[in-house]
Amino acid sequence: MPGKVISYVLDGLSAIPAEVEVDASSGLPSFTIVGLPDAAVQESRQRVRAAIHNSGYDFPLCRITVNLAPADLRKEGPLFDLPIALSLLIATGQIRSSCQEGLVVLGELSLSGEVKTVRGILPIVRRARGAGYQRFLLPAEGAMEAALVQGSSIFPVSTLRQAVDFLRGDLVIPPLEAPDWTAYGQEPVQVSDFAEIRGQETAKRALEVAVAGNHHLIMVGSPGAGKTMLARRVVTVMPPMTFEEALEVSEVYSICGLLSKEKALLTSRPFRAPHHTSSYAGMVGGGSNPAPGELSLAHHGVLFLDEFPEFRRDVLEALRQPLEEGRVQITRAHGTAVFPAQVMMIAAMNPCPCGFRLDPRRECRCGAGEVRRYWNQVSGPIWDRFDIHLQVPPLSLEELTGDGGGEPSVAIAGRVARCRALEAERYASFGIRTNAQLGGKLLRRFCALDSSEQAFLRQAADRLQLTARSFDRTLKLARTIADLDSQERIRLEHLAEALQYRGAVDWI
Amino acid sequence: MSSSPSSRLSGAPGEEAALRFLLRKGYRLVERNVRSRWGEIDLVCRKGSTLVFVEVKSRRSLSAGHPLEMLTPAKQARLRRATFFYMMRSEHPKASYRIDLVAIILDREGRVQEITHLENAVEGE
Fold first, then answer.
1. Distance separating alpha carbons of residues A102 and A87, to the nearest angstrom
2. Among chain B residues, CA nearest to A32
């Protein structure tokens, strides 16, 4: 009788149940895996054979055929090792049980029969739970991830023997207790704080506005002005993630094998600062078996791109659509994988190749052509994605040595949280959450101006030669500034501040 | 299905030794030196309900490598083919069977120095 065990295939963030069937028949002994397996699955033959043998079971001398169904779906990775081994032991009568019915099994095997953790446990268990599966036999090492999914019974095993004994009914494994995640956000592990940065009050204010409305921001400033320091602290003023958001981010980390074994849930917003040499696949995601990139690893957090013009042009252009849609879609011949990518993008660049163009104390060595070339590396459409263009001046000596730290992150975070709550409440029935997402009709509706403000903005737009897009972005920014000010109507001072953040670096 | 010709110098004493060895281990001889157009099978034995085809490799010197290393992919393919057609023509074509290797090292006078029996040496594809 063929053995059958249910496992799962991960395709992007969607998971599809896969039946692992094993048939053992007479004939010249052989061990074949069919059902579109990749190299790692083919190699599982060696691991399964050794693990079964070294765990004290019989590896039968007969024709063994393993079928991974559905056969038209690519199977990858070592997560089928344990299901294949168990299915084989069932097929050869070494496990007599129907206990595996409705049980989802994942796990890699070592040659000695240990069960090792695999990538993507969290998304698989979440999807499988959604599809109605409740019982999971998982590697003990990665089982904590699965415990995040409510309503699931997780049975952790660390050796093949334990798994077999469990199926035979000889071993009772208590289901893993789910930790109390309702209290998960109450341990803010902030390594840095805005209070540590002296001066740069304008920049801090701009960052506060950016976070409050989730606007993308680009900083232009000389080396040493503190651009990176500022960017790193942005996550400390963002509102804590909801449990659902934390799960979404953790899923991406689970696929990349980046979750910690003990905690399994990412509780603080991610801050990703990929190097400017990053490849297309590293940034956006990709590969023949699509994997998430930095953009998805920064989901619900900050993607910081230092030395912005130095990034490869195609990489930057590839960011445009995902930033707009909040998700990355990777299309390959055999299907499409979708990863989330709702990020706040913060870019930083020098004003010129040598970096000292804005510094009154240093001489800039760059020729006009060089500077133009440097700036031209950032295309107009990409430049347009940034709602806030911020000039970060080099710190003067007084500011550096002045005593008394800045405002602590907690205080800023409080204002941001109030503002975000206001936005969320206002847009609750419109499917968006932040001012940055405003567009078209919603923009006209929620950023309506009184006549005097209207006239002011028209005049400013004329003088500054704002494009239509720039005009809209100014309005959105003004909305956020008004929200921070707890004002229903957008007033002159809000518009004036918003205009400051537009075109502040256009003179270069 | 005759016995081997005298020209195969080291094969004959090796095969004798292998057969004695297997008989002691409880195997029963079914046939020797089965030749067909698909290849040659040195020994056909039976152990329980399993038909065991045995390839015997013997060497007088290790200078060309251990006899266990002699089972080249080409030789394996020949064995698979030969045993497959043997099974097709047998009374129980669906019976379980396997291919074993017996490696023998002889000294200069043809005395057995060492015998190694490798079960299931050639797997199906």
1. 14
2. B125
